Amino acid sequence: MKKILKYIFLFILVVNFTSCEDFLDEKPKSAIGAEQFFATKADAISSVNNLYRNGFPSLYNAGSAYMGPTIMYGGYMSGLFDNQYKGQERFVQDAQNLGVDPVADNGYLLSVWQNCYIGISRANAAVKYIPTTPGLTDAESKKYLAEAKFFRALNYFELVKLFGKVPLVKDVYESLTDLYVPASPEGDVYNFIVEDLTFAYNEGGLADAAMPANGFRISKGSVGALLADVYLNMSGYPVQANKYAEAATVAKALITNPAYGLIQNGATPEESAYNKLRTSDNQSEYLYVIEYDNTIANGGWRPIYNFPNEAATWGEFAYNITNLSYRPMPELLTVYDKTNDLRIQEKQYFHTKYTFTKGAKAGQTIDFGAYYPYFWFESAALYTTSISTKDQVHYRLAEMYLIAAEAIAQTAGVTAEAVDYLATIKARASMNKTKAVIVTELSALSKDAFIKEVWAEKIRELIFENKIWNDITRTRMYPTTVNGQFTFVPLIGATNPWGKTFTEKDLVLPYPNDEVQRNPQLKGTM
User: Fold this and answer.
1) Which residues, at least 6 apart from 123, have a Cβ–Cβ distance to it below 8 Å?
2) CB 261 within 8 A of CB 362
């Protein structure tokens, strides 16, 4: 059992046992105030452990065979990902048609809004009461405070990217005063996020290690990855605060630290870096991951997202449903050089065929005639257990290389350092070109062409890691195919694969109707 999941499980057992033993107490446990809960060191630790499963991490939960996890909503909004069951999942079609509606799509919108604010509320309590919790040393207090601030920042980051202006709730609700909070400008939200992360990074005393090497607890590397991403986003739309230098500094600190390292390719296609990413939970490239296992918190339906609906009738899998819930559109796949890029070769990020293992068709191969995801293929889950246990990586070192390359180029142009960072990621995926050749090619690019190549590489490398809509909205550039060639065009006025044209209103989600009705301060904000 993984370490942080074990701690959360033990906390649940303790809470349940205590509640049963003391149910005749004058004041029920459910009515205990936050200040009373933080009475022991164990209380403080459990409050932080809770943040690893709730709030933003819950957006990764693949609880449906028909609809991708909430974290995939951005891909649908880009119009560049499809879902075979979108006929019954209204949000997907509304997103592709640029018609997300606060009333009709209220439940989908709440799945982001409410979960993130639940995480923020719990983090607020931890931040407020950990410093005065008895039994904690000063070092322990700072460490758990740093973890709580990381998660508070992570939740606000997701909200501000998707909704734009959002209410900035900094303290625990302990009275009916100030219950309705107006939406704050994006710049104010970002500044608050940076404040939390700066403390966690510089003063938290967190282990300087990859998250798996730190018992799957938040490390300095986790905080640095989020902070670099935040600075990069602050530099783009809508804030345009020019924090590229800060983004580069933080990303470079991770790249040059021997505690972190890129996964290396092995001698065979099965041992590629990308198959290790698919199968291994313990890599020094992983900076922040959401954990899953087979008993406490499994990964849900994600393995069946690799196959079309009809695959459920093949008699091959332990699951009774299959669905291409998050399939890149063919237009997006033109970003890959199919003759040179390892990531689009068979059984790397994608597969184009399947060989039957059971029954009369055993040994026969079916050709899909298209590229389907292979990224979530878990052999044991698909064939035996129907239980996904693979951790989902949200930040890894490869992304830091790309952040550094873009940030340096934005401030200093196409320097040797920026070229080296981009070339390192491209070389790992290259089947026919050496890094030296790639460096020569990149060095000849103009600043604008180089930056766009970074954006393209980010799509290639992170295509299944839910980054694309964020990059589209912060750059205001849309990835598309023109005359068979992959390129970027201005977002406003661009047409998505569904024939819909982006306008300013399409760049953020509307507030959920339920939330607007509850909080009158939100009416008329957007």
Assistant:
1) 51, 55, 148, 149, 151, 152, 155
2) no
Residue with tokens 């070109």: 433
User: Residue 155 and residue 394: Cα distance in Å, rounded?
Assistant: 13
| Entry pTM | 0.94
The percentage of residues in the chain with a pLDDT greater than 70, rounded to a whole number, is 92
CA–CA distance, 404 with 66 (Å, rounded to integer): 37
Q: Is residue 232 part of a domain?
A: no
Q: Mind giving me the DSSP string for 365-388?
A: EEEEEEEEE-TT--HHIIIII---
The closest of 382, 390, 406 to 467, measured between CA atoms, is 406
Q: Which residues of 32-56 are buried (b: 16+ CB within 10 A; e: fewer)?
A: eebeebbeebebbbbbbbbbbbbbb
Strand 327-328 with 286-290, pairing: unpaired
pLDDT higher than 80, residue 36: no
Please state, in angstroms and rounded to a whole number, the distance separating the CA atoms of residues 316 and 337. Answer: 32
Give me the number of domains the chain comprises: 2
For residue 107, give its domain range. 36-185+476-526
User: Quick check: is 4 in a domain?
Assistant: no
Distance CA 185, CA 268 (A): 51
Q: Which residue has the tokens 């107006």?
A: 182
Span 236-278, pLDDT tens digits: 999 999 999 999 999 999 999 999 999 999 999 999 999 999 9
